[in-house]
Amino acid sequence: xxxxxxxxxxxxxxxxxxxxxxxxxxxxxxxxxxxxxxxxxxxxxxxxxxxxxxxxxxxxxxxxxxxxxxxxxxxxxxxxxxxxxxxxxxxxxxxxxxxxxxxxxxxxxxxxxxxxxxxxxxxxxxxxxxxxxxxxxxxxxxxxxxxxxxxxxxxxxxxxxxxxxxxxxxxxxxxxxxxxxxxxxxxxxxxxxxxxxxxxxxxxxxxxxxxxxxxxxxxxxxxxxxxxxxxxxxxxxxxxxxxxxxxxxxxxxxxxxxxxxxxxxxxxxxxxxxxxxxxxxxxxxxxxxxxxxxxxxxxxxxxxxxxxxxxxxxxxxxxxxxxxxxxxxxxxxxxxxxxxxxxxxxxxxxxxxxxxxxxxxxxxxxxxxxxxxxxxxxxxxxxxxxxxxxxxxxxxxxxxxxxxxxxxxxxxxxxxxxxxxxxxxxxxxxxxxxxxxxxxxxxxxxxxxxxxxxxxxxxxxxxxxxxx
Length: 468
Prior knowledge:
By secondary structure, the protein is of the alpha+beta class. The chain has two domains: about 5-100 and about 245-290 and about 320-360 and about 370-465, no CATH class; about 115-230, 3-Layer(aba) Sandwich (Beta-lactamase). About 25% of the residues lie in helices and about 20% in strands. The chain has helices spanning about 5-15, 40-55, 105-120, 130-135, 150-155, 175-180, 205-220, 225-235, 250, 315-325, 340-345, 355-360, 455-465, and strands at about 20, 65-70, 75-85, 95, 100-105, 260, 260-265, 270, 280, 315, 330, 335, 350, 375-380, 385, 405-415, 415-425, 430-435, 435. The strands form five sheets. Strands 1, 2, 3, 4, 13, 14, 15, 16, 17 and 18 form a ten-stranded antiparallel β-sheet that branches. A hairpin with a 4-residue loop joins strand 14 and strand 15 (about 385). The longest helix has 15 residues, at about 40-55. The protein is globular and about 60 Å long. It starts with a helix and ends with a helix.
């Protein structure tokens, strides 16, 4: 996308500061290795395109933070818009930067998968073992009582679990009481598929990641958020947490409040593109976050409490360190974080869409939450993007011209949309985090994919850095 001068000036005025690796933006974390192959005018052109996208009339975006990696080095990082918007005093607005901490939604699942692959490589977890042996009770879909459920199934959305019974529960709830017939929270058993046995049918499920977190806790006797810190975040040298209360005041000041121009009126969600930005989550301007768990939390009882399906806070810059580590066979900054074998396991294909399976009905839940044709293949946690385009609103193609395939994950929650996609062979990748939408994104579907139109535009705005 190219922007003329008047468009860029208008965009910058509407969305506020723009920061990139070519500016003097505050820099509180260590940058990933830079590849000096974009000149200042090329960087500026991408900055301007992102600013123009964020200021599109009627579908403005609260912020965008982005990183592009090429040849195993960062060639672009930048941000537009605000991490905090004060509806009363605009002077209190705070600019988003590549260093801002976003709640990245379902990219969290892929990050958890990295830790699972590491634990499996260390023989602390067995991907094909009946998870009942970790949990301490016999976990079965009651409609298929003879079929075991494994970590591999949970990580590839083929376990037969569903989100219909909920997937995020308070500390007082033991997941056993949700999953087991007769349990206090079991109700009608809506969390179990009635006609698809564990093992082959793909149905995207958040709840499975609460179970995965339970398994991780039981196998290591360590609280999930602390386990992630010890196994992955500390060795990688990133600021990341599933418990915002654990952040220092300086780190907390970097957290992005997520927004929508949407409010609840008479019990209904109403969008008002001309109205104020309404905080959705992580507004710590009034009071700090509360700890996710108390000192009396029972390890292995309720991993969903920490939001393993979507509750990780991390910056685009620090996500680039994770991407570089995966590109480089588990090594980052001279340290072997994961073994080459663990990375290969993580990225190995586990499931692929087969339209002819199940008597021609296909082996995936079609249009789950509106994702038409988006899920075509899956690795051990990460999605595989096959560059499929089935016309307007369908497919996983990222660039208008096609040609970019890879692995990673997407996120969508509380106004945020996000993407983390890389090709381990070409050593190229894209990360972007969007901090809120002014209009219902479902009304602006993609022209050639299941992405929202503004997501397609962001991918294409970043394409010059990806391919130059």
